[in-house]
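For consistency, the fold was encoded as tokens, as this record shows:
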Amino acid sequence: MTGTPDRAAQPRAGAPLTCLLVDDSPVFLTAARTLLERQGLRVVGAAGTAEEGYRLARSRSPDVVLVDIALGTDSGFDLAQRLATDATTAGTTVVLISTRSEDDLAELVQASPAVGFLPKAELSARSVLSLFGHREP
């Protein structure tokens, strides 16, 4: 897991961290939503495309957007850049996720506006919160 806590916005005090999931796998979206909500995070939406993720990020203002690097024909890196440069979503924290190895993606993640990377197999509330400097939900 890579991360740069100083690039992460802080969650609202006293409220659960809100997340938006963006992944082209409906099975993963369902499993990730269930897992994160059981572990104390609040999932405010799930999107299967970059465009849908962008629209939901603008309308729901999540604390963090978890974005799959490979979104079918779309790029999670492009979505992260779009969220970072849009005035409405510029303060939104983006975490890139993938089934691919962190070693394969480290340079690309570092060059992106994302605060870090989480392998899908390690996705948990604890791993997301650790990017914010927190240990428990």
